[in-house]
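Help: why these numbers?

___
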Amino acid sequence: MARILHLSRGGAFGGSQRQLAYVTEDLSPKHSHVIVCISPGPFVDYCRAHNGATQVMKLRPWRKRRHFFFRYRDARQLTHFAREQKIDLVHCADLWLSGYLFQVAEALGVPSVLHVRTPVSVAQVRKNRFAAATAIVAISRRVRENLLSAGIESRQITRIDDAIDTELFGRPPKTNVLRRDYPDSGPFLVGLAAHIRPAKKQLEFLQAIHHFDRVSSTKATFFLIGFCHDPAYLDRLQRFVREHRLHQRVVFTGNRPDMPDVLHSLDLLVSLSGGSVMFEGMACGTCVLSAGFTKREQAVHLRDGETGVLLDSQEPAELYAAMDGLLTDPKRRQRLGRQARDWAEQHLDRKRMARQMDALYAKLIIGTPCRRDQGQST
C-alpha cells in the first residue's frame, strides 16, 4: 500500500479543500492518505471524521524573509513526520506550500505533485520552482496552456479537471434556504460564492451591483457567500456597500456549511474568478454566469449559450446587462440550468477524477527509482 502525504492550508471548506476531500475518499484502497493542514477549522474536523490521519502543523510562509530560518526548522519537522509515516509521495494542494513540498520530497527521495488551480505568471513559476515537481496537475485546459507558455514541459503536466459530488449537489432541498434565512429578499436571488479575498473579485461584483441598482427596475438581492479570508478586504467591501447605499440589495452570509442547498436556492450564480463552485452550481441546475476569467474559445465545461453564460469582460455595465438579461428571461435560465446539470452528471463526477488521480499516483510511485529509504538527509 502506498502512503500519500497531502499538504493543505486547511481552515474553511473552499474549492481546493473539497477537491482534496474527494481524492482522499474516492481513491483506490491501494493508497492510504495522511493530511497535514496549517490551519484548524471545518476542513480539519471533516477530514478527521472521514479520512482519519489528519495533522495540524505550523508551517510559516516560505517566501517571507522574516521566516527565512524558521521555515527550514518547520520543513525539518514536516520531513521527520513524513519519514515516520513512511510516505511514498507528497501532493501539495496549494502553491503557498510548494517550498515545503519540495523540501520533503527531496529529503525523502519520493515523487512530488504540485496542484495548480489558477493561471500563473512566468515569475511565479520560477519563484515557486515548478520545474522541480515530478508532476504538475493542471485543473483545466487554460491552466495547462498557461504552464506550457511559462516553460514547463508537456510531459510534466497532467490535466485533471476539478470534480463535484453530483449526487450531493444534484439533490434539491425541501425549502429555499436563502428565502428562509433572509425573508426580506427580492424576487430574484443572485450570488457570488467564494472566500472573501481580493483574488475572488467581490469588489468588482459590488461595482456591477451598484450599476444594477442605478439603472435597473429588476428587484434582486445579491449574496456574497463565503468565509472571510481577508478582514481588511471585507471592511473595504462593507464600506462600499454603505457609501453606495446598497444595504438593501447586498447580504454577506459568511461561511455556509449547506452549500448544496444555498446554490439550489439561487436564481443565478456569478463567478469572476473561476473555481469548482461553478461546477457545483451546474450540478444543482442553477444558471451560471462567468465573467472576465475564461475566454469562450478556452471553455470546456461552462460553454457560452449551452451550459451557462460567458463574458470576456468584468466591466460593470456589461456584467449588469448580462445579469439583468438572465433574470428577466426565466426560460433561458432554466434551459441553461438543465443543460448544465446534464453536462455535470456526464463529465464532472468525482469518481472520474479519482480514477485519473489514481493512475497518476501509480505511474509516479512505480517509476521513481529513488525512494524514501534512500533519501535520509534533511
Q: What stands out?
A: The domain at 166-347 is CATH 3.40.50.2000 (Rossmann fold). The chain has 15 helices and 13 strands. The longest strand covers residues 2-10. The chain has two domains: 2-163+350-366, 166-347.
